[in-house]
Amino acid sequence: MDLGAIVADPGTRIIVCCGAGGVGKTTTSASLALAAAEAGRRVVVLTIDPARRLAQSLGLEELDNEPRRVHLPGLDNGSPGELHAMMLDMKRTFDDIVVAHSTPERAETILENPFYQTLSSSFAGTQEYMAMEKLGQLRAADTWDLIIVDTPPSRSALDFLDAPGRMSRFLDGTMIRLLTAPARAGGRAGMRLVGAGFMVFSRIISKILGGQLLRDISAFVAALDTMFGGFRERATATYELLRQPGTSFLVVAVPEPDALREASYFVDRLSAEGMPLAGLVLNRTHPPATTLLSSTRAEAAAEAVAETGGEGSALAAAALRVHAERMALAGREQRLADRFTSAHPEVGVRTVPASAGDVHDLDDLRAMGAVLTGPDDDPTSATPRTRVLPPR
Ligand SMILES: Nc1ncnc2c1ncn2[C@@H]1O[C@H](COP(=O)(O)OP(=O)(O)OP(=O)(O)O)[C@@H](O)[C@H]1O
Ligand SMILES: [Mg+2]
């Protein structure tokens, strides 16, 4: 996978970083954005819940839901490159949609509605839906030539693709339509319209859910209904954006069975939907310092050294054992990577070794960006960057 070429290509307009929870989506997005800006592109990165220190490094002190330019000292000398960053504020994005699509009085009613407030801040899927919304807005603004999108910390990578549809089906769904039928048809006329059987049903439901909640939902959906043509169409429109040429998905995983299984599902899903995949980033791998000494030989040497009991033998034995462990770990990671590759031979892979500490400041991001976008061989170790261990 040649990520350097992908980020530098003027034809690449959107990159979406997906993957299971905690694998490095936010860090990868920010690193790639920095690399692309330094390659001369006008980039905006949409981050979601970045770690506090990373947000500070990007100059994002508070959620303001609009991109801010990141000051890059290296880019003052006439390079056209620019980096802008923002953190998604899910509730603000939702509020903005409401305000943009309704009259001021109606917007106020909706924004104050308790059901709306719950939905906009904590409903599962709202964050995914709003990330897509924001992507649509950034794309429409046409201010940047590359948009890099981080995705929410879902359990499954597929949630980014599925949650918006699920949410719009919920809002547009039969259940909600039934529950809100009286409100939509308007008072007593509505009751006649839906019939006595439904009223019994509705009374039971309102016992379970609470009458106030039901009235809140009714009022909210009735207001939304007249506001714009339904959530489903909106979700479909943003989804379509992801299928346009110029959009590229990047799947991030760590060399662990669960994360790679997620990555596999996601890759299959993208190909089923005809969405372009840039490749897999295998993040936080543990390559050993050298592969000249095998795990078994290092273990044996550790024992032999320890038996001599000479000066420094304990330390030497400990160092050999660390190496033996690293070799074994890297071997396991390589087998997991190989299993993924044999299931998906067409998918390019780039491994990114775990750095000693967290990836938090611009220097860390630059270093990670260099590994992501650099040549296939690591010049210092000559290890191919597609592998955890060099081939025998
Ligand atoms: N290559 C790496 N080496 C060391 N630490 C890393 C590396 N990549 C990411 N990290 C660290 O791992 C942590 C999780 O990374 P990140 O927040 O990017 O993951 P995420 O996939 O966005 O998580 P979430 O699903 O919660 O949004 C962070 O503290 C980050 O600094
Ligand atoms: Mg994240």
Distinctive features:
binds adenosine-5'-triphosphate, Rossmann fold, alpha/beta, about 400 residues, elongated, eight-stranded mixed beta sheet, ATPase_ArsA/GET3, about 10% strand, 3 domains, ATP binding
What's a quick, concise take on this entry?
It comes from Goekera deserti. The chain is about 55% helix and about 10% strand.
Percent helix among the residues? 55-70%
Beta-strand percent range: 5-15%
Q: Main sheet?
A: 8 strands, mixed
Mean pLDDT: 84
List each distinct ligand once.
adenosine-5'-triphosphate, magnesium ion
Low-confidence stretches: none
CATH class value of the largest domain: Alpha Beta
CATH architecture of the largest domain: 3-Layer(aba) Sandwich
Number of helices: 16
What do these coordinates show?
- By secondary structure, this protein is α/β, with parallel strands linked by helices.
- It folds into three domains: 3-162 and 231-286 and 346-373, 3-Layer(aba) Sandwich (Rossmann fold); 169-227, no CATH class; 295-335.
- It is 57% helix and 12% strand.
- The chain has 16 helices and eight strands.
- It has helices at 3-8, 25-38, 52-57, 90-100, 104-112, 114-122, 126-141, 159-172, 174-185, 187-209, 211-227, 231-241, 257-273, 295-308, 313-343, 362-373; strands at 14-19, 42-47, 68-69, 82-87, 146-150, 247-253, 277-285, 349-353.
- The protein has an eight-stranded mixed sheet with strand order 3-4-2-5-1-6-7-8, sandwiched between helices.
- Strand 6 (247-253), helix 13 and strand 7 form a beta-alpha-beta unit.
- Helix 7 (126-141) packs across helix 12 (231-241), helix 8 (159-172) packs antiparallel against helix 12 and helix 13 runs parallel beside helix 15 (313-343).
- The chain is elongated.
- The two termini are 21 Å apart.
- Residues 19, 21-27, 49, 51, 153, 283-284, 352, 354-355, 358-360, 368 line the site of adenosine-5'-triphosphate.
